[in-house]
Every structure is written in structure tokens, then in C-alpha cells.
Amino acid sequence: MSIQQSDVLYTAVATAENGRDGRVATDDGRLDVVVNPPKEMGGSGAGTNPEQLFAAGYSACFQGALAVVARQENADITGSTVTAEVGIGKNDEGFGLLVRISAKLPNVDPATARELIEKAHQVCPYSRATRGNITVELAAPTA
């Protein structure tokens, strides 16, 4: 389900120069990084890359969704972490992404943790935006 422009609460603005081998900066100056292809893709690997930036954003967003779900379920996720692994590789259309989300929830039993992660995956804006477009795997939770 999409939102209308009038419903937007915040808009991030970032500009790239020279694509995967250049620089990306936000309009407010809070993020200004050199981007380079990783060595595995023939680049220098000197800077960050779009996959790392996507993984950072996705993991932070998913952690926020997990917190919302945990509050609704009265679950204690204190000390939890979420890791997003973003892979890029060739597919029939050129290149595609694969994401693997894993979470550590030290204060929750494994069955409850799995349920919380699955519910967070349903409400996380990144998960909803990528659903049906890329493969997103949910790893078994760990303590």
C-alpha cells in the first residue's frame, strides 16, 4: 500500500556523483561518503558501497519495526541487535539483490523471537518495499 505525498512525515535527500565509484551526500551534510565498488566486483574497495548503505538502513529500520512489535506483544528486546546482509549478484535481468536478516534477542525465547521477527518483517517499511522484488531471508533468531 502506497502513501500519498500529503502523508509524508520526512523525506531524505541524497545525491550521488559518479555512481558506484564516486561520492554520495545528503542535502543536510550529515552523510557524505566516498563510494567505491568492492574488490569482489573489480573495484578498489576503498570506500563504502551502496549495498553497505542499504544494509545499514534496512537493519536500522527493521530494528525499529521489531521494537514496535515487541511493545505490542509486551516482549523485552533490551540488548537486541539486527543484522542485514545484502548480497549483489547477476541474474536474468542484469543484477539483483538478496537480503538476509538476522536478529539476536537475548531476553526472549526462540519461538517468541521468531514470531516477533516475522511480525516485524510484515510491518517494516523496507521489508514491505522490497517484498516481491528481491529475496529476503529471515534467519533463525539467536540469543
Overview of the structural elements:
With 143 residues, this protein is of the alpha+beta class. It folds into two domains: 5-41, N-terminal domain of TfIIb; 50-138, K homology (KH) domain (GMP Synthetase, Chain A, domain 3, 2-Layer Sandwich), CATH 3.30.300.20. The chain is built from three helices and six strands. The strands form two sheets. Strands 1-2-3 form a three-stranded antiparallel beta sheet, with no helix packed on it. The protein has a three-stranded mixed beta sheet with strand order 4-5-6, covered by helices on one side. Strand 1 and strand 2 (22-26) form a beta hairpin. Helix 1 crosses helix 2 (110-123). The longest helix has 24 residues, at 50-73. It starts with 13 loop residues before the first strand and ends in a 5-residue tail after the last strand. The relative contact order is 0.13. The model has no long low-confidence stretch (mean pLDDT 95). Belongs to the OsmC/Ohr family. It comes from Streptomyces pyxinae. This is Organic hydroperoxide resistance protein. InterPro entries: KH_dom-like_a/b, OHR, OsmC/Ohr_fam, OsmC/Ohrsf.
